[in-house]
User: Which sequence fits this backbone?
């Protein structure tokens, strides 16, 4: 049932200082509202239990994509559409562009933001696997100051994260890498367009002939948080690609993830598909 | 929490006319358009951003108006289905929907037209796959989509757009 709309406040601060003042003045009372593509759905369903929000829409400090010689820095309000259209992201961070393109519909991509995707903390979010592959760092700001955190430390458990009530995610930093990595992204949902993931797989590898010099594997929807499959990576790192090593990696992967049964899929299906995606990724590395 | 907030004044441009109204901050743009501005061409389908029936153009970009809170429309340029035709002159997309039978029950049609207009304004030469992608956020339970797809092709032709072959 729809929520009672007059019971909700949504303030629109004009500056970052004003927003941080509200957040810090009454910690826990105010929560940030970015693109609204998740929160408005909860509102309509009568499941938006928090009542006071701060619209980030007028905060220029949270917008824009800055390219420096060693990094690309995306404002937290960067939309999925802006991600897809950025030439440097297209060439150097294709997994992030693929994730943005497969998130919701174009209408959702025009409103939904990268920062919102992170702080909403869904284990089924599509951009976090790409962010993990690229060693993203995030900037958290509050009236107390600024701190940077490796993104992989941010989510600690289902919907839990290292974010104080007075803090705001301001930016996401992606270090630019000079060496070429082979990259792979595949999301599996019920249908091709506009589906929420059953499994989301992002991989990158640096090859030397058929030897894996380095490898990264990140997965969504198969654990309480989006995670790097570090043990599976260990099995593969330095190895020569061959059927036996692929089989060993698939076995390790099964022990490393903890998929569940839910409305979108089953644990069994998720496990099998995740293993198949790993095999597809690895098979494409030798060509 | 029993607190009730006050309505606030919102000013924006709707279909090229400046418009002011009072709304609760978290009111949905969809409801404001229909109930305050009486622009009932914009339809409510799912109410959760899945079906595209409530699509409008906000600052030139397609959005689902059920997911936009009224306060964020302040200062924005909004175009609804009522603003797509120029007076009595239908938009090429609307003409094409009529010619191709791209509508049956009509609930999805305003959103479909908005999606097609958004696509053609962004990409003057869409390939087949791009047209399908451009319509993927809009659900239709009547037509089977083929006539809608055909209507977008027709709109491209009537606008003299050269489409790339077999893309």
Assistant:
């Amino acid at each position: 049932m729809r929520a009672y709309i007059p019971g909700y406040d949504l303030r629109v601060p004009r500056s970052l200082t004003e927003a941080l003042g509200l957040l810090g003045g009454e910690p826990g009372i105010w929560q940030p509202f970015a693109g609204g593509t998740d929160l408005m759905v909860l509102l309509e369903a009568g499941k938006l239990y928090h009542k006071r929000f701060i619209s980030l829409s007028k905060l220029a400090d949270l917008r824009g994509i800055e390219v420096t010689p060693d990094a690309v820095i995306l404002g937290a309000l960067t939309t999925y559409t802006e991600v897809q259209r950025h030439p440097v992201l297209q060439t150097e961070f294709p997994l992030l562009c693929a994730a943005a393109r497969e998130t919701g519909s174009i209408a959702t991509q025009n409103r939904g933001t990268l920062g919102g995707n992170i702080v909403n903390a869904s284990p089924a979010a599509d951009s976090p696997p790409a962010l993990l592959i690229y060693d993203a760092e995030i900037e958290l700001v509050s009236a107390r100051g600024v701190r940077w955190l490796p993104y992989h430390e941010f989510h600690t458990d289902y919907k839990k994260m290292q974010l104080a009530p007075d803090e705001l995610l301001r930016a996401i930093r992606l270090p630019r890498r000079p060496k070429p990595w082979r990259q792979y992204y595949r999301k599996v949902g019920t249908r091709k367009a506009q589906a929420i993931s059953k499994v989301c797989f992002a991989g990158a590898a640096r090859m030397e002939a058929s030897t894996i010099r380095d490898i990264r594997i990140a997965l969504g929807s198969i654990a309480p948080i989006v995670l790097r499959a570090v043990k599976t990576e260990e099995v593969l790192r330095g190895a020569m690609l061959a059927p036996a090593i692929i089989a060993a990696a698939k076995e390790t992967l099964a022990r490393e993830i903890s998929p569940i049964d839910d409305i979108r899929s089953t644990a069994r299906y998720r496990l099998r598909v995740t293993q198949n995606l790993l095999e597809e990724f690895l098979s494409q590395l030798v060509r | 929490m029993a607190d009730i907030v006050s309505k606030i004044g919102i000013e924006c441009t709707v279909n090229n006319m400046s418009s002011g109204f009072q709304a609760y901050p978290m009111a949905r743009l969809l409801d404001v358009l229909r109930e305050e501005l009486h622009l009932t061409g914009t339809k409510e389908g799912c109410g959760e951003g899945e079906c595209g029936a409530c699509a409008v153009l906000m600052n030139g970009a397609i959005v689902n108006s059920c997911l936009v809170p009224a306060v964020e429309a302040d200062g924005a340029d909004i175009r609804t289905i009522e603003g797509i035709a120029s007076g009595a002159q239908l938009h090429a997309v609307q003409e094409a929907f009529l010619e191709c039978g791209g509508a049956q029950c009509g609930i999805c049609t305003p959103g479909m037209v908005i999606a097609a207009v958004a696509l053609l304004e962004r990409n003057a030469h869409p390939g087949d796959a791009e047209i399908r992608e451009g319509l993927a956020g809009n659900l239709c339970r009547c037509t089977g989509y083929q006539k809608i797809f055909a209507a977008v092709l027709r709109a491209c032709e009537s606008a003299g757009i050269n489409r790339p072959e077999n893309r």
